[in-house]
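Q: What residues go here?
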């Protein structure tokens, strides 16, 4: 079912005439470039926004791919999916869908979680839009809300449920850098020049 939903979303993305913003980030672990993140924000029509975040990382003996897809309609999330593959094997997945005036969250860990209130801002939007005046945002990968706070001019910290912190930095409303920890190493996503 996940593959069908992702395939349908991809077809909609490819066939829809739209305005779009494509951002590419280089990913560094301990100073060495190990991959990239492609962040696409597309507007198929006036009321719809489609986000795609695809991260590819290469390590010795390990290839990691993260694929997050999000669809907003009238500024409300209506569908999201997140997959993490290691060496081409699916390790984590989450789908979020708006059904019967609430969200249903299904994942490799649990199914049927319900979120009652409309989601208006999620992690998928963080690369394209500065999260001003927000204290929580929704994480597509985790299927839950996370806290966010401003820590200075154009800088925000997103705190994960496990206590780890991701720091996003912005210039003119667009994320220029994201810093986090992964595998006990400091990881930086840095926006490439167009």
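A:
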């Amino acid at each position: 079912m996940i593959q069908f939903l992702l395939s349908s979303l991809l077809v909609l993305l490819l066939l829809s005439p739209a305005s779009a913003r494509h951002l590419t980030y280089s990913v560094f672990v301990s100073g060495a470039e190990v991959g990239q993140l492609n962040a696409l924000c597309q507007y198929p029509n006036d009321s719809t926004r489609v986000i795609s975040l695809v991260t590819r990382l290469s390590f010795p003996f390990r290839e990691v791919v993260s694929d997050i897809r999000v669809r907003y309609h009238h500024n409300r999330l209506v569908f999201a999916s997140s997959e993490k593959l290691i060496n081409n094997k699916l390790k984590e997945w989450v789908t979020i869908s708006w059904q019967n005036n609430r969200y249903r969250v299904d994942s490799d860990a649990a199914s049927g979680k319900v979120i009652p209130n409309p989601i208006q801002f999620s992690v998928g939007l963080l690369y394209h839009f500065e999260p001003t005046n927000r204290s929580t945002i929704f994480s597509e990968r985790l299927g839950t809300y996370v806290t966010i706070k401003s820590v200075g001019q154009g800088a925000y910290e997103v705190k994960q449920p496990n206590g780890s912190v991701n720091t996003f930095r912005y210039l003119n409303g667009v994320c220029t850098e994201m810093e986090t920890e992964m595998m006990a190493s400091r990881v930086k996503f840095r926006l490439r020049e167009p």
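A: Context that may help when evaluating the design: Residues 56 and 65 are 5 Å apart (CA to CA). Confidence is low (pLDDT under 50) at residues 3-17.
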